[in-house]
């Protein structure tokens, strides 16, 4: 458990402002949760791929043209 906490502490985390109105509009359009739309907005803003295990989020990301790094279980 301590190793997991140390590893987590090494992950660089950056807080990003996202236009919540745009995220909510995307959520409604893509029929996804608002927090998933927020993740997609962050990926779009930073030209980053989406990393997820969530099939619905993979579909939504691909639908709007984002690259996806799919993780298989």
Protein described:
The protein has 73 residues and is mainly alpha-helical. The protein has four helices and two strands; from the N terminus they run H-H-H-E-H-E. Strands 1-2 form a two-stranded parallel ribbon. Helix 2 (20-30) crosses helix 3. It starts with a helix and ends with a strand. The mean pLDDT is 90.
Mind sketching the topology for me?
Layout: H1 2-9, H2 20-30, H3 34-45, E1 50-52, H4 55-63, E2 68-70
Parallel strand pairs: 1-2
Helix pairs in contact: 2-3
The H/E string reads HHHEHE
Distance, first to last CA:
21 Å
Portion of residues in helices? 40-55%
Number of helices: 4
Can you count the beta strands?
2
Structural key phrases:
globular; two-stranded parallel ribbon; 73 residues; mainly alpha
Short description:
The chain has helices at 2-9, 20-30, 34-45, 55-63; strands spanning 50-52, 68-70. The chain is mainly α and 73 residues long.
